[in-house]
Amino acid sequence: MGRLKAGFGSFINNRWLVFVAAMWIQSCAGVGYLFGSISPVIKSSLGYNQRQLSKLGVAKDLGDSVGFLAGSLSEFLPLWAALLVGALQNLIGYGWVWLVVTGRAPVLPLWVMCILIFVGTNGETYFNTAALVSCVQNFPKSRGPVVGILKGFAGLGGAILTQIYYMIHSPDHANLIFMVAVGPAMVVVALMFFIRPVGGHRQVRPSDGSSFTIVYSVCLLLAAYLMGVMLVQDLLDVSHTITTIFTVIMIVLVLIPIVIPISLSFFMEPRGSLEEVLLPKPEEQEPGNSERDSHEVIFSEVEDEKPKEVDLLPAAERQKRIAQLQTKLAQAAAEGAVRVKRRRGPHRGEDFTLMQALIKADFWLMFVSLLLGSGSGLTVIDNLGQMSQSLGYDNTHIFVSMISIWNFLGRIGGGYFSEVVVRDYAYPRPVALAVAQFVMAIGHVFFAMGWPGAMHIGTLLIGLGYGAHWAIMPATASELFGLKKFGALYNFLTLGNPAGSLVFSGLIASHIYDREAEKQAHGHHNLIQNSGSILSGVLGVDESLKCQGSVCYFLTSLIMSGFCIVAVVLSMILVYRTKIVYAHLYGKSRT
């Protein structure tokens, strides 16, 4: 009995339990990716044109990215309270939209609908912030894999919810909005007390590598399974019973990772844990810790005292010269020498506040690169329904689900491969971001050309590249600007997402689409007039809202491809500027 009680206590405070619960919450934090599925029913029910629908899309993107309040609340509220606020926002925002679309509430002006979409989607920022803050603190030396897996489940949320919707088998597409409103709120309320820092840096075990392997395996299996299920449901007439079985198997796969904290807590003998080194907390820096403080200060002073030519030396020689300089500074401090005055503010790799980060060129390079790269990807996600319809596809849900799966794999892969880059080569993580943005540039070209199968290939490339952004960027921000204010820094950087969507979707894509639709409607109207049809006026009005053919998004896709190339250049500039930082952070682990 005593052992069972001890095992239960260990289970409740296990960092892997927090991680698994965060994964489940994140699987509900991607409801914004379902906008491509719910936008057609909103458009038809409320009679919106493409420009009005694009405004709702921008409001959704703003809600998904404006996380200042979530970041601020997470600093002084317990994380469960922040999660509860997010659940309430999600329920109220999308719940009211469902009432309006189904006629249970009066039709509201467009600006009010934008506010409701913003409020509902903004709940995701609380889910993201709480999950990332708790898990990055619990796994400080595995930031790439942890962030990639968590953000990956957020990207896969659209496919998971779509599969559950298929199981419900509702002929009314508006019920998908109801599920988006109620489902995430129920999951978050059930799990919110598990999401918290539990001193995870003191729970390092030799088996952690195997645990991550299990999680990665489940992730890949889940993505492959969902892709297979989506293709079967798209190509064959599947019965409701088979769909239910498919959905139950999917839920079992999502639940499998819980075996990790269960086995660690109940079936493995307690063993001495290692401890990952964290930056010292302010309360730990007491007068008695002068030796540790001296080391931290000396590390920063190296940047001030280091000759410029040291940065040009080979890696091994550079490390040797820096070690010699650290030794000299330590000896001088021990002998009572006057310390060299530090530059104002922290150095790269130390803890920054948001205001300190805002005056750094590296921070703005990250922001603009994210704006151009992820902004163009989000534009594709928001317009995927219309893009597939314009190329003659009737079932838009399959592409929404596919891009959700590729988005998921991009986040998993981006976190894994960027971690290989920094761990094995001590090379800056943003180089992986540059690769992802180049892949997206190619994907936009496929969308522009509209070749046979281009929708499938473009969806693959955009999904992978866009997803990689959200595994690489948070980990990079925590490495360059520290963990102390990570919530505020992360939520500011995510503003690049809606800013890019506002430019690409709200100002470029929608105007070009409507212009081409008007051209086609005008030509069709003239054709019918010439044939003497008395129905020309009615048909002209109907067709004025729709565009057919690759021309609808040709110019938009080429513009976005060009901006992705610009993002690649910015990311490579960031790589050049941060080589020394990553050599400091990860160079010692290779020696």
TrEMBL record:
Keyword Cell division: no
Record-level GO cellular component terms: membrane
Entry-linked Pfam families: NFD4_C, Nodulin-like
UniProt topology in membrane: Multi-pass membrane protein
Keywords: Membrane, Transmembrane, Transmembrane helix
Main subcellular location of this protein, as a coarse class: membrane
Keyword Cell membrane: no
Residue intervals passing through the bilayer: 16-36, 79-101, 107-127, 148-168, 174-194, 214-233, 245-267, 363-381, 396-418, 430-451, 457-477, 489-513, 553-576
Superkingdom of origin: Eukaryota
Residue ranges annotated for the Nodulin-like domain, each copy included: 15-262
Location(s), subcellular: Membrane
Domain NFD4 C-terminal: 357-520
PANTHER family per the UniProt record, alphabetical: F1C9.29 PROTEIN-RELATED (PTHR21576:SF73), UNCHARACTERIZED NODULIN-LIKE PROTEIN (PTHR21576)
InterPro entries the UniProt entry points to: MFS_trans_sf (IPR036259), NFD4_C (IPR056555), Nodulin-like (IPR010658)
Record-given protein name: Nodulin-like domain-containing protein
